[in-house]
Amino acid sequence: MRHSTERIIAPRSRTCWGGASRSDSFRAMDASSTDDEDEVIHAYLAGVDRTLIQKNLTLSVQERFEQLMELQRFAAELRRAGERAERT
Fold first, then answer.
1. Which domain, by its residues, includes 87?
2. Could you tell me if 72 and 87 lie in one domain?
3. Domains in the chain, number
4. Cβ atoms of residues 2 and 58 within 8 Å
5. Spatial contact of 22 and 15, defined as CB atoms under 8 Å apart
6. Residue (of 50, 53, 42, 29) closest to 21 by Cα position
7. Is 37 found in the same domain as 58?
8. What phi and psi values does residue 46 have, to the nearest 5 degrees?
9. DSSP tag of 17
10. 3-class state of residue 11 by DSSP
11. Same domain, yes or no, for 64 and 43?
12. Over the stretch 25-79, which tens digit does the pLDDT of each residue have?
């Protein structure tokens, strides 16, 4: 069964400290952000592939762990290849 992150998080995050809703807190943070911060955020967002994020959010937890384990196997293989290359 697949769940969206929003459905998993939302029931647990209805309020923040002091009883304010989480969305109220985020709105307050947005209102206090400066133009410089917005420029930095937009610069980072330009390099973010949102389709990859959306794809990963459609995966089950099991599928995400399988991807992570595959990435770790690949990293270990690269590490071993680098060590072999240093020895020669």
1. 49-88
2. yes
3. 2
4. yes
5. yes
6. 29
7. no
8. -60, -30
9. G
10. helix
11. no
12. 555 555 555 777 888 888 888 888 889 989 999 999 999 999 999 999 999 999 9
